[in-house]
TrEMBL record:
Belongs to the multi antimicrobial extrusion (MATE) (TC 2.A.66.1) family. It comes from Hespellia stercorisuis DSM 15480. Multidrug efflux pump. It is a multi-pass membrane protein. It holds the Pfam family MatE. GO terms for molecular function: antiporter activity; xenobiotic transmembrane transporter activity. It comes from the Bacteria. PANTHER family: FMN_FAD EXPORTER YEEO-RELATED, MULTIDRUG RESISTANCE PROTEIN NORM-RELATED. This is Probable multidrug resistance protein NorM. NCBIfam families: matE (TIGR00797). The chain crosses the membrane at residues 63-87, 99-122, 142-159, 171-192, 198-217, 246-268, 288-310, 322-342, 362-384, 391-412, 418-437. It is found in: Cell membrane.
Length: 455
C-alpha cells in the first residue's frame, strides 16, 4: 500500500541520482513526442488509403494553417511548465494554485476565441494560401471541424504541462497512447461508414477530448495540491503578465520555426519533383533523428526549473553537462547510422526512385556532420528557458531562420538542394553560438522567476 502512495507523489528532481532521473524522465517525453509525430500521420494515411487522394490533399493544405494556431497553444504550455516547475522546486504551492486558476480562465477564453474565430476564418485562410478550387470546400470543412476541437487540445496541453512540471511524464504519455488508438479506430469506423474528411476530423476531436478528460481525472487523483478550491479559483493579473512575459518569446519561437520552414519549402518546390520528394523524405527522417535531443532538452528545461527554484544551481549545472553529453553521443551515433545506411533508410519511404534517393542523401551527407550541434541548441536552450530566460529562445530561433533564408537565397541558384543543407548547418551553428554565449555569460541568473516573485 505504501508503494502505491509513493507512486502518486510528485517527482522531485532537486535531489537524487541526476543521471538516472534525467534518463527516466526524458524517455516518456521522447515516446510522447514520437507518438505526436505518428498521430499526425494517422489522419493522412486513412484519408489517402480509405477516402481519396483529394481528401488527403485537403487535409494536407489544412494542417499548416491549423498548426499555426496550435503553435500558440504549445508556446503557452511550455511557458506554464517553466513557471510551475520553478514554483514547485521552491515549494510555493499557493503560487501554483494561483497560476493554474489564472491560466485556466485565460485559456478557456482563448480556446473559445480560437475555435470560433478559426472556424469563421477557415475558408478565407485557405484562399490566402492559394488552395486549389477543387480542394477548397473539403479543406474548409475539415479545418472548421478541427478548429472547433481546439479547446480540447488546450485542455490536454495545459494538464500535460502541469503534470510534467511536477516530474510526472508517464501520464501524458499514457493519454497520448489512448488518444492515438481511439483516433485510429474511430477514423476507420467513420470513414467506412461514409464520414469522409468530417469523420476524420470528428475522430481527432473525440480522441483529444478523451485524453484531456483522462488527464483531468488523474490530476485530481494524484496531485490534489495543484487543484484550486472554489474559494481559491481567481484571476491574478500580475501572474498573467508574468506568464505572458515568459510565454510570448516561446510562441514567437514556435511561429518563427514554422514560418521559416514554409518559406524554405517554397524554394525547394522550385527545384522539381525529384528534389521535392527527396527532401520530403529526408526531412521526415531528420525529424525522428532529432527527437531524442528534443526530449532531453525538454527534460533539462523542467530539471533546470525545479532546481533553480530550489536554489540548487550546482546540481542544475551538473545535470546540464550530463544531458548535453548524452545528447551529443546519441546524435553522433544516429549520424553514423545515416552515413552508412542513409540511402537504404530513404528507400523505405521513397521506394525505388533512385533520383529522389540520391537527392535526399545529398542533403544528409552534409547535415549529418552537424546534427550533434543540436544537442547544444536544445539542451542549453531548454536550460535557459527552464530558468526563465525565454527571450533567448526567440532570439536564437530567429537568428537561425534568418541565416538559413539568407544562405538559401544566395546559393539556391548555384547549388540547388545542397544550398538547403548548407543553410541548415550554418543556421544551427548560429543558434548554438548564441545559446552557448548566453549560458556562459551567466546573465540568465537574473531571469529566475522565483526571485522575481520574491522581490
Amino acid at each position: 500500500m505504501q508503494k502505491r502512495e509513493n507512486r502518486s507523489q510528485p517527482m522531485m528532481l532537486t535531489s537524487g541520482n541526476i543521471k538516472k532521473q534525467l534518463m527516466l524522465f526524458s524517455i516518456p517525453i521522447f515516446l510522447g513526442t514520437l507518438l505526436q509525430q505518428l498521430y499526425n500521420v494517422i489522419d493522412a494515411v486513412v484519408a489517402g488509403r480509405l477516402v481519396s487522394e483529394d481528401a488527403l490533399s485537403a487535409i494536407g493544405v489544412s494542417v499548416p494553417i491549423y498548426l499555426l494556431f496550435v503553435s500558440v497553444i504549445l508556446g503557452l504550455a511550455i511557458g506554464i511548465t517553466i513557471l510551475l516547475a520553478q514554483f514547485f522546486g521552491a515549494k510555493q504551492f499557493e503560487q501554483i494554485k494561483s497560476l493554474i486558476s489564472t491560466m485556466s480562465i485565460f485559456l478557456i477564453v482563448l480556446g473559445l476565441a480560437m475555435a470560433f474565430g478559426g472556424a469563421i476564418l477557415a475558408k478565407p485562410l485557405l484562399q490566402i494560401t492559394q488552395t486549389p478550387a477543387e480542394l477548397l470546400d473539403p479543406a474548409a470543412t475539415y479545418l472548421r471541424m478541427v478548429f472547433l476541437g481546439i479547446p480540447f487540445s488546450i485542455l490536454y496541453n495545459l494538464l500535460g504541462a502541469i503534470m510534467r512540471s511536477f516530474g510526472e511524464t508517464k501520464m501524458p504519455l499514457y493519454a497520448l497512447i489512448v488518444s492515438s488508438i481511439i483516433n485510429l479506430v474511430l477514423n476507420i469506423i467513420f470513414v467506412i461508414n461514409g464520414g469522409g474528411v468530417i469523420g476524420i476530423a470528428v475522430s481527432t476531436i473525440i480522441a483529444q477530448a478523451i485524453s484531456g478528460v483522462y488527464l483531468l481525472v488523474q490530476l485530481r487523483k494524484k496531485f490534489p495540491m495543484a487543484i484550486p478550491t472554489k474559494t481559491e479559483f481567481a484571476f491574478n493579473r500580475e501572474l498573467l503578465k508574468l506568464s505572458l512575459k515568459i510565454c510570448i518569446p516561446i510562441i514567437i519561437q514556435q511561429l518563427a520555426v514554422f514560418l521559416g520552414m514554409l518559406i524554405v519549402q517554397g524554394f525547394i518546390n522550385q527545384l522539381g519533383n525529384a528534389s521535392i520528394g527527396g527532401m520530403t523524405a529526408a526531412s521526415r527522417i531528420e525529424a525522428f533523428i532529432l527527437l531524442p535531443v528534443q526530449a532531453l532538452g525538454n527534460a533539462l528545461s523542467i530539471f533546470a526549473g525545479q532546481n533553480i527554484g530550489a536554489n540548487e544551481k550546482d546540481r542544475m549545472k551538473q545535470g546540464t553537462r550530463f544531458g548535453i553529453t548524452l545528447s551529443i553521443a546519441i546524435t553522433a551515433l544516429l549520424s553514423i547510422i545515416l552515413l552508412f545506411w542513409g540511402k537504404g533508410i530513404l528507400g523505405l519511404i521513397i521506394g525505388n526512385n533512385e533520383e529522389m534517393i540520391i537527392k535526399g542523401y545529398s542533403y544528409f551527407h552534409i547535415c549529418l556532420w552537424f546534427y550533434p550541434i543540436n544537442a547544444l541548441i536544445y539542451g542549453l536552450g531548454g536550460v535557459l528557458s527552464g530558468v526563465g530566460d525565454t527571450v533567448i529562445a526567440g532570439i536564437h530561433s530567429l537568428a537561425s531562420i534568418l541565416v538559413k533564408l539568407l544562405v538559401t537565397v544566395l546559393l539556391i541558384g548555384k547549388l540547388g538542394l545542397l544550398s538547403i543543407a548548407i543553410a541548415s548547418c550554418l543556421g544551427w551553428c548560429a543558434a548554438s553560438a548564441i545559446v552557448v554565449m548566453r549560458y556562459r555569460g551567466n546573465k540568465w541568473q537574473s531571469k529566475v522567476v522565483v526571485k522575481t516573485i520574491q522581490n
